[in-house]
Design brief:
Mean pLDDT: 96
Strand order of the largest sheet: 1-3-2-4-5
Number of helices: 4
Low-confidence stretches: none
Shape: globular
Distance between the termini: 18 Å
Largest sheet: 5 strands, mixed
Number of strands: 5
Strand content: 25-35%
Length: 102
């Protein structure tokens, strides 16, 4: 599944009401580790078609960063059945991202 850009207007429908596991990448364009994580997230999305993957640009959607307690980026948050289940902060390799899905 393709990676989708999330906004305050779409977040609840796309993430909290999703019928599958969703991983959300909180990032910013100026963040070097975030840019390093982008291809990893793209690989995970391509390898797991049953997974929904979203990205939140914290500069454009600061309210979502505050809502979910994001204090450092990149931050990955996994949601299942509308609830936050796991979180990872900083750059992580693909294997670590995939381990969040278990």
């Amino acid at each position: 599944m393709a990676v989708i850009e999330l906004t305050s207007a779409t977040f609840d429908d796309e993430v909290l009401h999703a019928d599958r596991i969703v991983i959300v990448d909180f990032w910013a364009t100026w963040c070097t580790p975030c840019r390093m994580l982008t291809p990893v997230i793209d690989e995970v999305a391509a390898a797991h078609p049953d997974l929904k993957v979203g990205k939140v640009n914290i500069d454009e959607q600061p309210d979502l960063a505050v809502r979910f307690g994001v204090q450092s980026i990149p931050t990955l948050i996994v949601f299942k059945d509308g609830k936050k289940t796991k979180e990872s902060v900083g750059f992580v390799p693909r294997e670590m991202v995939e381990s969040l899905l278990d």
